[in-house]
Structure formats: C-alpha cells, structure tokens
UniProtKB/TrEMBL annotation:
Keywords: Cytoplasm, Methyltransferase, RNA-binding, rRNA processing, S-adenosyl-L-methionine, Transferase. Residues 166-442 form the SAM-dependent MTase RsmB/NOP-type domain. It comes from Hominifimenecus microfluidus. Gene3D superfamilies: NusB-like, Vaccinia Virus protein VP39. It holds the Pfam family NusB. This is 16S rRNA (cytosine(967)-C(5))-methyltransferase. The gene is rsmB. It catalyses: cytidine(967) in 16S rRNA + S-adenosyl-L-methionine = 5-methylcytidine(967) in 16S rRNA + S-adenosyl-L-homocysteine + H(+). It is found in: Cytoplasm. One of its GO terms (biological process) is regulation of DNA-templated transcription.
Amino acid sequence: MVTARELACTVLVQVMDEGAMSHIALREALDQATETFGMEGRDRRFATALVQGTLERLLLLDAKINGLSKTPVKKMKPWIRELLRMSTYQLLFLPEIPASAVCNEAVKLAQKRKFHGLKGFVNGILRNISRDPSLPDVDDSARYSQQEWLVHRWEESFGREQTEIMMQAFFERRPLAVRRNTSIVNADTLYASWERDGLTAEPVPYVPDAWYLKGFESIDRTEAFRKGWIQVQDVSSMLAAVVAAPEKGVSILDLCAAPGGKSMHLADLTGSGGSVLARDLTENKTRMIRENRERAGFTWMKVEEADARVLDEDLIDCMDVVMADLPCSGLGTMGHKPEIRYRITPEAIRELAALQREILAQAWRYVKPGGVLVYSTCTITPEENQENFYWIAENTPLIPESLDAFLPEALHSETTAKGYLQLLPGIHKGCDGFFISRFRKMER
Ligand SMILES: C[S@@+](CC[C@H](N)C(=O)[O-])C[C@H]1O[C@@H](n2cnc3c(N)ncnc32)[C@H](O)[C@@H]1O
C-alpha cells in the first residue's frame, strides 16, 4: 500500500527529474492508487496538496533546507531531496499537522525506500526545522519561488507592486470552473442534477453560464459531466470564445485545439447549424478533443490531425471564424501548473514566439473576407502577446477590432478598445494570465 506522502514524493520525483507535468502525473498516480487499493478522498486531497504546495514553494523550501544541510539540496539523491522538500513544506505551511508526525513519517518513508543510511540525516534536518519553523529571510525570487530573471523581467514590464500581486496570486487556490453547454441543457436541469449530486455552484466573474463548483470527489463521476452538460475550463479561457462571438450557423476552424475547451465552447455557441473543424498535431492530442465531443454529442464538430505551420490550400478564405489559441510558454497558468516556473528559459520564450509567428503567417489566410481571427495565449510575455498582435496588424490584411462589444465593462480598457486584452492573475479576478486579441479580414 502507498500512503499519500509516498505517492506525493514519487510524483515530485517524476516532475523534477523526469519532465512530467504535475497535474497529469498526479492524476495518473491517484487513479492507480484508488484502483489498486482504494485510496479515498481525504488521502487523495492530501497527496494533491503536498505535490502542489511543495512545487509552488520549492525555492523557499530549498533555502530553508540549505541553511541546515552540509549537502546542498541540488546534490541530494532525488527521492531524499523530494522527501525533505515535501516534509519541510508540511512543517512550514501546514501547522495543523503535528511536527512529530511529519518527522516520523519521513523517516519511515526513507526506510521503506531502503535509504537506511540516510534516515538519521533526514531526521536531523527535519527535527531542526520543526524546532524553528520560521520562514527564511530571502529575496523575492525565493520568497515567491520564481526564477530570478523572471522576477526582474516582470518588474520591468509591470512594476514591483503589480509583480508582487501577481506572484502572490499564483499561490491562491480557486475552485473548479465549469461552463454550461447551452445548446444541450438548460440551467434548471443542470442545477437539479447538481443538487442530486450534492454540489454547490457559484457564478464565475465575467462569463455568463459558468460557475465555480464545489462538493464533488471527482468531477468525471458527476451526472452533469458524464452527460456532457458541462465543460471544465478556466475563466480566462472561456473569454477567448466569448471574444470570438461566433453567430449561429457559421464555420469555425480551431487550429491548435487540444484538449478542446475552446472548440467545444465555439461549437456550443454556433450550434448544430454551424461547423467546427478542430485540429491538433498528434493523435494523442486529437483523442482528447474527440472524447469531449463524444461526451456532449457535438456532431457538427470535426476533429483532424494537422500541422498548423503548413498551409492548407483547401481552406483559404473559407472560415467565418479562425481560433488561433497557440502553443506558448504558459506562464499565466503556473497557479495550477507550478513546475512551469522552473522550466521556462528566455530562449524558450523566443522559440515559442517564433513558432507562433510561423503559425499566424498561415492562420489569417483561412479567414473569409469579412470573417474574424482570434489570437490567444495563456501567457504574459510581450514577445508572445503584444508583439505578435502588432505583427498581425502590420503584416497581414487583417485589422484589429475592439473587444469591448463582447466583454463585460469591468474588463474594458485602452487596450481592449484597440483589440487586445492581457489578463493578469491577481489583477483580474479569478483569472489565469491570458492574452486575447481579435482581428477582422476586410471584405474585398
Ligand atoms: C494552448 S494549447 C491549445 C488549448 C486548446 N485551444 C483548448 O482550449 O483546449 C496549444 C496546442 O497546440 C498544439 N500544437 C503545438 N504545435 C502545433 C502545430 N504545429 N500544429 C497544430 N497544433 C500544434 C499543442 O499540441 C497544444 O495542444
């Protein structure tokens, strides 16, 4: 049998040493633990909290451990390193757990994993921390657990105050946000099903027909999810299709569509009289879109594998709406994908911006004269966002269009009037960092 702590440590090693994404590795490990020996809700939640908390406080935890250990954290054996980080997280941030339990469980785990010679070392470090669980005196980079170059970059772009608000917001937990598939269920039927399943719902900011849901063990076991009545989606992502605002019965192309959140939203808005062509690079990716489509029964959605960098001549001038929600550095999502913060490099940002240009250089061609292109990313770097916005405006026949007719007044600004919205965590309520822009191809 695997305990929540052991499972968390294993996932942390997968994330830090093997390049796994924490939300995927965690979901797989939890599902396996539930299947093989019935790990239940409390333990699942505890393991989740340990993985997320340890990852998002990593640099601060390392500073605390390094202050006491002769061997720096980076030189430790992966399993012992993650065990110490995870246990230190509990000692510093989860005061409701008795320190003695944290230390004893860590020593037991070291033993179970056959690190007999390191039991004393683990015990010594953790007992020391338990005697003084104060936060170490560190700079902003360690305090907010962000790479130093990134903190400087943000301070230059957003100023110190806004940067701190944003870095703090990355620690905040939000309930799961879901959107109603309005074309297949009405709100009363949905509420009744939530009541039967014992869920509570609260409207999200900025988007109609969307709620934060609480009270479920696993969303995929609820009636509303199984029947495709709801789509799990972050509020900022919902705003992309809101800004695209397709009319009923139009044709839509989503170039980089997996796992399918925006395609599903667009399909719901245009309804069964319209069409959505949802594409992504590989079969692994398109499978996720197909699963979403089957659940909701959106037969007017077609799913294909295609490389968006390659021009598809058959689609030139064909689409009323083109959604270009492109691969990006994802920095806006580090609130729920904490490891992103340690992986990103300045070179990766440059490469991603170039990839986006390559795709955008084709994307605009598919828009019908009079049609609309929406370019969005889940990041907050000017190279990937504003610079690409101006690149489209200057290098294609498309013209930026104000977003204000589609957004609630609370989101209107100088830039939304120009044609783009940069959402920032902590500044825009309940949102990830996200960028949305809208263009129109002039009628000939
Ligand atoms: C930001 S995600 C899209 C999220 C999606 N729009 C949604 O709302 O669920 C970017 C996607 O681009 C895909 N992608 C990356 N390079 C691509 C390419 N050259 N052609 C098509 N898709 C690509 C990735 O597989 C990934 O699924």
